[in-house]
Design a protein that fits this description.
Layout: E1 6-7, H1 10-15, H2 24-33, E2 38-39, H3 40-49, H4 54-59, E3 88-92, E4 95-98, H5 126-138, E5 144-147, H6 157-168, E6 175-180, H7 182-185, H8 192-198, E7 204-209, H9 218-229, E8 234-240, H10 248-260, E9 264-270, H11 284-297, E10 305-308, E11 317-318
Helix pairs in contact: 6-8
The protein binds pyridoxal-5'-phosphate and iron/sulfur cluster (SF4).
Pyridoxal-5'-phosphate binds near residues 92 and 146.
Organism: Rhodospirillum rubrum (strain ATCC 11170 / ATH 1.1.1 / DSM 467 / LMG 4362 / NCIMB 8255 / S1)
Cofactor: pyridoxal 5'-phosphate; [4Fe-4S] cluster
GO molecular function: 4 iron, 4 sulfur cluster binding; L-lysine 2,3-aminomutase activity; metal ion binding
């Protein structure tokens, strides 16, 4: 089964009513620099939510992306310094990040890997993947493999199954994990064959990235329910984004939406220092105040860990208490 077509140009967006035609010229340099894609179903949800909505803000290009601050950098979480072979980041002793593809079904305007993801970025070749698997096989301290990207769930069911099978066969691997936006933003891709590929002898945890409750369309909720029914353990990750979810009411609704859909909140990320994302960044103090208010008012199930990942730092670190 193929996914429905995506919008991939400013003209597509204008035709779908997501941007006014007179803004095409202003936004041309934005899409020349950063990738653009919006799946058809999401485009419809954005059109319904309106041009000033949290959905539009996350996915429709904005001229504000052309403003890059001096402190914004192309590798904001320091992946390159920790990459022993192409496609792999080994930053923490017991787990690695494996990036089989660079493409995503949708390009978030605040993406922390925005200088590295895009439709042109090819996936790992067979030889490169063999080197990745050999590295993991040779390093017995690695207990978990985290698939990221890009979005690994744009792989076909057959390729996903082959990759998870190869990783599962490595004796010292105890846990597999996939970070993806697909179940919520492009649910048509989650076919029965994909769900079958996730059911294995070793657990495959699925960490679903979503930032606003309106991302949970009827199709998204149905997709997440089918994953939960199949026994796939579900976690969330969100980015704290100015004008999207940086108020207590929205953040609470987002976390409750996760829990109501059988997704346990895992991480809330401070927006990384990626270029052209200043208009999305809250201060650490604002973030801490919000997380404290969430703690004081919402169920324990609704509490993600608020984390910061600095390029030269020790890696992801909880920042909800004032120690960094
Ligand atoms: C985020 C990340 C992981 C996973 O970290 P957890 O805290 O276990 O979720 C692993 N490797 C890299 C390089 C990462 O950035
Ligand atoms: S899905 Fe993830 S990697 Fe892809 S554009 Fe969004 S934040 Fe970036």
């Amino acid at each position: 089964m193929t996914a429905p077509p995506s919008l991939r140009s400013l003209t597509d967006l204008a035709e779908a009513g997501l941007i006014a035609p007179e803004r095409l010229a202003e936004l041309a340099p934005v899409v020349a620099r950063y990738a653009l894609a919006i799946p058809a179903g999401l485009a419809q949800a954005i059109a319904e939510a309106g041009p000033d909505s949290a959905l539009a803000r996350q996915f429709v290009p904005s001229a504000a992306e052309l403003t890059t601050l001096p402190e914004e950098i192309t590798d904001p979480i320091g992946d390159h310094a920790h990459s022993p072979v192409k496609g792999l980041v080994h930053r923490y002793p017991d787990r690695v990040l494996l990036k089989p593809v660079h493409a995503c079904p949708v390009y978030c305007r605040f993406c922390f890997r925005r200088e590295h993801v895009g439709p042109g970025g090819e996936s790992l070749s067979e030889a490169e993947m063999a080197r990745v698997l050999a590295y993991i096989g040779d390093h017995r301290e690695i207990w978990e493999v985290v698939l990221s990207g890009g979005d690994p769930m744009i792989l076909s069911a057959r390729r996903l199954d082959a990759l998870l099978g190869a990783l599962e066969a490595i004796p010292h691997i105890g846990s597999l994990r996939i970070h993806s936006r697909v179940p919520v933003l492009d649910p048509a891709r989650i076919t029965p064959a994909v769900i079958a590929a996730l059911r294995r002898s070793k657990p495959v945890w699925l960490v679903i990235h979503a930032n606003h409750p309106d991302e949970f369309t009827a199709a998204a909720r149905a997709c997440v329910a089918s994953l939960a029914d199949a026994g796939v353990p579900l976690l969330s990750q969100s980015v704290l984004l100015k004008g999207v979810n940086d108020d207590l009411a929205t953040l609470t609704r987002l976390m409750r939406t996760f829990v109501a859909n059988r997704i346990k909140p895992y991480y809330l990320h401070q927006t990384d220092m990626a270029p052209g994302t200043a208009h999305f960044r809250t201060s650490l103090d604002e973030g801490r105040a919000l997380v404290a208010a969430l703690r004081a008012t919402a169920s324990g199930l609704c509490q993600p860990t608020y984390v910061l990942d600095a390029p030269d730092g020790p890696g992801k670190r909880p920042i909800d208490v004032a120690w960094g």
